[in-house]
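Internal ticket - ligand job 679, 2-(butylsulfanyl)adenosine:
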Amino acid sequence: MVAPREAVERAEFLRGEIERHNHAYYDLDAPTIPDAEYDKLFRELQGLEAAHPELLTADSPTLRVGGKALAAFAPVRHVVPMLSIRTETETGPAGAEAFDARVRKALALPESAPPVEYAAELKFDGLAINLRYKNGLLVQAATRGDGETGEDVTQNIRTIQRIPLRLRGSAPAILEVRGEVFMSRPDFERYNERQRKLGKPTLVNPRNGAAGSVRQLDPKVAAERPLSFYAYGLGETEGWSVPATHNGVLDALTNLELPVCEHRIVAYGASELIAFHSAILARRDSLPFDIDGVVYKVNSLALQAELGFVSREPRWAVAHKYPPQEAMTTVEAIEVQVGRTGAITPVARLAPVFVGGVTVTNATLHNEDEVRRKDVRLGDTVIVRRAGDVIPEVVSVLSEQRPIMAPEFVMPRICPVCGSAIERPEDEAIARCTGGLYCPAQRKQALLHFAGRRAMDIEGLGEKLVDQLVDGGLVKTTADLYRLDFERLAALDRMGEKSAKNLLDAIERSKTPTLPRFVFALGIRNVGETTAKDLARHFGSLKALMAAARDEARLQQVPDVGPVVAASIAHFFAEPHNIEVIDGLLEEKVSPGNTPMAPLAADSAIAGKTFVLTGTLPTLSREEAKALIEAKGGKVAGSVSKKTHFVVAGAEAGSKLDKARELGVEILDESKLKELLQA
Ligand code: IVH
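stdout (structure tokens):
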């Protein structure tokens, strides 16, 4: 049946519209129509294609939802074999040095020869894919398989929005692009969250999520999984003038609209490779996807050809690893910990396991609901994750390996430390010990918080010492710290005269804190460092703050102090015990300074404004951006609300960006932020 002309034209129009909206949504992060409208266009096109199958083009967006389920994947023979790369497991500088030395030796370079030019990029943790474009159209996608023969996963790969179905511009006869399919962490979390709500199985980690989705026989299942893709190399090409360097190839792929990760550089010699390795390691935790290392490649394709291969691995490339962030271990016990404000946190005691560069023996389970949700039980085999300085957490349970009769976790009804009742208000996720400062655990945590580096900064007052001071009855309140005497201190376990003197000196030095530090050190619930600074700037002195503290309306005049925080502050200062402690501190000559009440840099465009950072910025790390904003008197908050002035969004920005749009908060990219910082 020949489709009537109107149908041909309408289908063409719809394809154009849908692609335009896709581009706005996925690439520009700026949707142009509501979801429902988009769905209408999409269904109309599907209807037309169903009625007139000859209208279906190889690049129709409807292919992205996946067709019929397969019985098995067809084998695909790779014209150019898909090889793997050698891995340097030595995570220090030696990894890059060894590679550079091998390259120089193989090229017979004398010592006097200049450094070799390399391309350095990320090692994505997903699944390798070969995309075959014929005259610009995606005609086939295949897994690596054994390197010679892979599996035809075209239907599934078409569901990945980031992968163009048609290349932009003048297309070569044949272009095979190789790269990694992966799942970003925010997408992984969102997907699992939704599955949990539906009571459906969750994915173990993003890597398994990506690999499992690509190898789904039913493309509808794959279409539901949010996958991403980055290109990092070539397979067969025909009718394409291949650039002279790897870096040039990646630039050319970008021009064809293929996604290439922006974290890549050209580096000269081992020292620059090492610098890249550590620079990326420092940013690893703020990347929205997992990497397990970086990859170095000799930049010149001619030199690559000269270097060739050894035992199916190229001599011109190497993967330089990072310590793994996830590992498998078993749960030896589930206990609860009592925090400073009485919050009860279930903690998994683990068989020791090396992960993220350290040996981990404990992992937080956050709260009661979380333990239920993950269904962590005694004896379970679990995956633990330790990323950067973040407290290790149990990511998931391998439930197939559960011992029979493994008992479920039950929240205790009384505090294991002081025996007071544990209560959990109905609308809260956190259960708390009601013992207050009667509870030695809370007292200890309060002391540790008070002495912390960002609070009173009393060096040497660590956990072990606080245990001894509280258990031995030497210290009950923070004021008691200033009443400690030398003899009793020196007599403590593992203390000695020198340490006792050092500690007393440190305590003495802490007597003149700034007002924000002092307010933060008090440990008022919901008052973190930022709120402490705000309170100090608003009231100027401890006296003024205390005078206002019972009046919640006055407290709420402080920027970013809402009803919950105001209530916490009022509650704290209404407690006679807390006033006694503050009086005690003042008696012991602890005197917080006053804070100038005007905002620091009232004339800058940033002073007094609240920012939220989301996604990965091209050059600034999150910490750097935060420091720059704060230096200009701005503030950085963790979540978007009506009080947010600006959201700074980078690559792979997630729900915070959506929220900003919803609330009409101004959105900046890095360059706009920099302009504002200059203003
Ligand atoms: S290049 C001949 N570059 O790591 C060189 N591989 O064995 C071919 N991978 O399975 C690989 N990121 O999927 C290359 N930037 C990157 C990569 C990368 C991740 C994966 C790839 C392959 C494995 C290497």
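Auto-summary: The domain at 412-598 is CATH 1.10.150.20 (DNA polymerase; domain 1). Residues 83-85, 121, 123-124, 128, 180, 232-233, 295, 314, 317, 319 surround 2-(butylsulfanyl)adenosine (CB under 6 Å).
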